[in-house]
From TrEMBL:
CDD domains: fer2, PDR_like. Residues 1-103 form the FAD-binding FR-type domain. One of its GO terms (molecular function) is 2 iron, 2 sulfur cluster binding. This is Oxidoreductase. It comes from the Bacteria. The keyword rRNA processing does not apply. Residues 233-318 form the 2Fe-2S ferredoxin-type domain. Keywords: 2Fe-2S, Flavoprotein, Iron, Iron-sulfur, Metal-binding, Oxidoreductase. Pfam families: Fer2. InterPro entries: 2Fe-2S_ferredoxin-like_sf, 2Fe-2S_ferredoxin-type, 2Fe2S_fd_BS, Beta-grasp_dom_sf, FAD-bd_FR_type, FNR_nucleotide-bd, MRET, Riboflavin_synthase-like_b-brl.
Length: 318
């Protein structure tokens, strides 16, 4: 993965507990291009790597902009961004990657929950620029927790965006059934936000007959897993024949790392897809939010940061 060194040109408080970071090359030269829905990996001062969606206009080449919510349950990533990263700092990032791309559609519906607005803001900018038919619904706990509220309200596509605040009046609450119905049967839906919000939207969409290929999801974090029934199993490294025990209280990536085998990880929750590893034999216990049900059923790849094995042995293409 190509690594870039960028300078933090600006750190700005966008809403309560949300800060944005404007990143650019120190010499002002252009950055690699990206498309709406893209993200970058950010290497944090405490050694962690986290992924953040790009939320600036995808036609811009002079900067990247990300926004980070300070998570009260932070595993070190969001707190490091808020507390340790300052204007003027040089940080390492990856080139943009896109696992959440826009597809051509007769109509597009964007549904954002909280900080999930970041990739969808970039999508809204793109759809507005090409004159596409779209609408966006942005749900947050309150106006003071709504990142980019004023920017969106003053944008050329402001009329297409509807804000919904949990502490607001009943008339402005998100009526998900009405919104999905109004989009029409040829629309494509993009939803991003907390797992609970995504599952709420997904349940309604599927219940109303939306086809799976019309629904596009991006999770930022996974719901806690019940690990009380986890058991030990083994993984075999196909290239060397080594067999490694994975204890009930260890992940595959942890077990491999203890034996000197490093697998690149980022989110460590099965959300981002960074650690995807091919499986040559065995049955996976998929616990990720990345693969589709059809992909999981093939048992030919998995996310070793969180997924486990149903069989006694997994043979990995490592």
């Amino acid at each position: 993965m190509t690594q870039l060194t960028v300078k933090v040109l600006q750190k700005k408080q966008e809403a309560l507990d949300i800060a944005s970071f404007e990143l650019a090359r120190a010499d002002g030269s252009p950055l690699p291009g990206f498309s709406a829905g893209s993200h970058i990996d950010v290497e944090l001062p405490n050694g962690l790597v986290r992924q953040y969606s790009l939320c600036n206009d995808a036609t811009e080449s002079h900067r990247y902009r990300i926004a980070v919510l300070r998570d009260p349950k932070s595993r070190g990533g969001s707190n490091a961004m808020h507390d340790l990263v300052k204007e003027g700092d040089l940080i390492a990032i990856s080139e943009p990657r896109n696992h959440f791309p826009l597809v051509h559609a007769e109509r597009t519906l964007l549904l954002a929950g909280g900080i999930g607005v970041t990739p969808l803001l970039c999508m809204a900018q793109r759809l507005a620029a090409i004159g596409a038919d779209f609408s966006m619904h942005y749900s947050t706990r309150s106006k003071d927790r709504t990142a980019f509220h004023d920017e969106i309200a003053q944008s050329p596509f402001a009329a297409k965006v509807h804000f919904h605040f949990d502490d607001g009046g009943a008339a402005q609450m998100l009526d998900i059934a009405s919104v999905l119905r109004a989009a029409g049967d040829k629309a494509h839906l993009y939803v991003c936000g907390p797992a609970g919000y995504i599952n709420f939207v997904l349940q309604h969409a599927e219940g109303m007959g939306w086809a799976k290929d019309q629904i596009h999801l991006e999770y930022f974090s996974a719901a806690p897993q019940d690990t009380t029934g986890d058991k030990a199993f083994e993984v075999k490294i196909a290239s060397s024949g080594r067999v490694i025990q994975v204890a009930a209280d260890k992940s595959v990536t942890q077990a491999l790392a203890e034996q000197g085998i490093e697998v690149l990880t980022s989110c460590e929750q099965g959300v981002c897809g960074t650690c995807i590893t091919r499986v040559l034999e065995g049955e996976c216990d998929h616990r990720d939010l990345y693969f589709t049900d059809d992909e999981k059923a093939k048992h030919d790849q998995f996310t070793p940061c969180c997924s486990r094995a149903k069989s006694k042995l997994l043979v990995l293409d490592l």
